[in-house]
């Protein structure tokens, strides 16, 4: 598995012969797109329709759980990044902290899975393809830029997808609890207030 991981990494890592546009796109996907997506998600959570607000809440909570899970894994398992192993070329500045699992991949896939699960079963396929396509693009960018091994990215994606399930359960519980009480959290709603 180690040689397969190394072979895949070297095949996907940008080299000096890689076109500058590919490296620029990978940098944008890795550094700017996550910030842009996070801001859009926060805006949707604050101003969106009820269904998309629920999806945004599920995506944000999934990302938070994924962040906690990755931090926990990195405390337990110290697997170095490719540059520390002398592999490939690193195209962005990065610290020497462990890289397993990939935080970017975990957050991207947590957001994608959480958002899709939050939208529910009636989600149009185009939203699913878009969400997972963006997550896969971010994961690819981490390999292209030389900051993660493929196993780091796959593990991050699995952690992110797994974190969406408890996030959806928590959001559902919060919504159902909130729906049974009034705007004043310490008072039960009148039965007439529950009918709409």
Task: Give structural notes.
This protein is mostly helical. It is 70% helix and 0% strand. It is built from 7 helices and no strands. α2 crosses α5 (125-144). The longest helix has 30 residues, at 150-179. The chain is globular. The protein starts with a helix and ends with a helix.
Poorly predicted runs are: 180-189
Major pleated sheet? none
Shape label: globular
Number of strands: 0
What gap, in angstroms, lies between the N and C termini? 57 Å
H/E element order: HHHHHHH
Instruction: Indicate the percent of residues in helices.
Output: 55-70%
Q: Please count the helical segments.
A: 7
Global mean pLDDT: 84
Q: Over the alpha carbons, how many angstroms does the gyration radius reach?
A: 20 Å
**Category by helix and strand content:** mainly alpha
Strand content: under 5%
Please give a handful of descriptors for the protein shown.
0% strand; 7 helices; mainly alpha; 196 residues
TL;DR?
With 196 residues, this protein is mostly helical.
Fold blueprint:
Blueprint: H1 2-12, H2 20-47, H3 50-76, H4 103-119, H5 125-144, H6 150-179, H7 191-194
